[in-house]
Design a protein that fits this description.
By secondary structure, this protein is of the alpha+beta class. The protein is 22% helix and 22% strand. It folds into 3 domains: 144 residues, OB fold (Dihydrolipoamide Acetyltransferase, E2P) (Beta Barrel); 51 residues, Irregular (Dihydrolipoamide Transferase); 222 residues, 2-Layer Sandwich (Chloramphenicol Acetyltransferase), CATH 3.30.559.
């Protein structure tokens, strides 16, 4: 007999509660293997590809691309015994279980009962997870199993073409059979308002549209047709909430410093021609990162955390350096782990790899957690400086501005020099003005005269 299992949306990182379905890589009727990538989702932190926990045949996709679902809600149904070879036959409740088997619990790398190793984070919903909305047009699970003939293979089902996105990014919610009916009857789903739960378009809505066609749009174009409405979700939603929490929790102070970085740029030019740095993308940001981690040793207050719950300040003896990165999905802050232990060359390589992965939207959620201090490189956009908002959980962030040719007084004479501006925002609960000023001055000194590094 067929054995139907429903795969619930897992928690791919600590504390995530929901995710958006971006792209399905399978369709009903497809045969899948264990650990085969079946879907790409977007969480509040990054885009993540999910592997299949079982082998079998896909029978139903329970969530359409563009929809946001909570952790623990089933997203796909798989028949793990399409040939009816399994023995003995499991109970109906076991066949339709998306959470309860020992094989589908635990985290990556953990040994499961029987010696198996978990291959996917967070199988199964947490306690109290939201349940999926009941399907009105589906038969009861017991009836569905009883009606299925023994050892009958699942016939491939050709899904209707995916809905095209409207200019504003809106995708009407409707089940695949309803979409097919609308296509067959020539009904535009974008012109309908769904009467089902959460605005889902039903079969009755489509049939009613056929009986009473939507009136033609007025000839006068209103302002609404020249506006775009984009749902606040994913990375943008998480970033917005984090910035609000940070801005209205930590008392921000920002200090500024203008630096002549000509010696740094001259050293960069020499190093780029050296054998050690051949093939390495040595950017000014790498020098700034090195200066930040070195200056943090002398002012450990900027590399700390305010723990309100425990009533403690937690000082870190390591530096997980965050680099704010603009991506197509919004602002993310991946970390360079143990940046304080890296040489300048290692930092340059790590920053280049970090930027490449972030631009592709492939940064793993774990790589954006537990940072200790952050750099935002506004200079890459040609901006001189700004007043950055602290990354939640950290007490300092440095804005690194554009490097420009500017007049500068050197030994009493005005000369053209390479100049940039730095801006340091810090949490005044942890970092006093003296400590913030000292740290900013140290960063500036290391960029203005890299030779000072041998004295640190």
């Amino acid at each position: 007999m067929p054995q139907y299992k429903q795969f619930p949306l897992p928690d791919t990182a600590e504390g995530l509660t929901e995710a958006e379905i971006l792209t399905w890589h399978v369709k009903p009727g497809d045969t899948v293997k264990i650990n085969q990538i079946i879907v790409e989702i977007e969480t509040a932190k990054a885009a993540v590809e999910l592997p299949c926990p079982w082998a079998g045949v896909v029978t139903e996709l329970l969530v359409e691309p563009g929809q946001t679902v909570e952790v623990g809600v089933p997203i796909i149904t798989i028949d793990t015994d399409p040939g009816g070879a399994a023995s003995p036959e499991p109970s109906v409740s076991g066949q339709l279980n998306g959470t309860a088997t020992a094989e589908s619990s635990g985290k990556i790398g953990e040994e499961m009962p029987g010696g198996r190793i978990a291959t996917l984070v967070g199988y199964g919903p947490k306690s109290g997870a939201a349940k999926r909305r009941a399907r009105k047009d589906a038969p009861a699970p017991a009836a569905a199993v009883a009606a299925a003939p023994a050892a009958a293979p699942v016939a491939p089902v050709e899904p209707p073409p995916p809905p095209a996105a409207a200019p504003g990014g809106y995708v009407p919610l409707a089940k695949p059979p309803v979409r097919k009916l609308a296509k067959d009857l020539g009904v535009d789903l974008y012109a309908l308002t769904g009467s089902g739960p959460d605005g889902v378009i039903t079969r009755a809505d489509v049939e009613q549209a056929v009986a009473a066609p939507v009136s033609a749009a007025p000839s006068v174009v209103d302002s609404g047709s020249r506006e775009r409405r984009v749902p606040i979700k994913g990375v943008r939603k998480a970033t917005a909430q984090a910035m609000v929490d940070s801005a209205f929790t930590a008392p921000h102070v920002t200090e500024f410093l203008t630096v002549d970085v000509t010696p740094m740029m001259e050293l960069r030019a020499r190093l780029k021609d050296s054998p050690e740095f051949r093939g390495v993308k040595l950017t000014p940001l790498a020098f700034c990162a090195k200066a930040v981690v070195m200056a943090a040793r002398r002012t450990p207050d900027v590399n700390a955390t305010w723990d309100s719950a425990a009533g403690e300040i937690v000082y870190k003896d390591y530096v997980h350096l965050g680099i704010a990165a603009a991506t197509p999905r919004g602002l993310v802050v991946p970390k360079v782990r143990d940046a304080d232990r890296m040489s300048l060359r290692e930092l340059a390589v790590a920053l280049d790899e970090l930027a490449s992965v972030a631009r592709e939207g492939k940064t793993a959620p774990a790589d954006m957690m537990n940072g200790t201090i952050t750099i935002t490189n506004v200079g890459v956009f040609g901006v001189d400086t700004g007043t950055p908002i602290l990354n939640p959980g950290e007490v300092a962030i440095l804005a690194f501005g554009a490097i420009r040719d500017m007049p500068w007084v050197v030994d009493g004479e005005i000369k053209v020099r390479k100049v940039c501006q730095l801006a340091l925002s810090f949490d005044h609960r942890v970092v006093d003005g003296q400590q913030g000023s000292q740290f900013l001055a140290d960063v500036g000194r290391l960029l203005a005269d890299p030779g000072v590094a041998i004295t640190y």
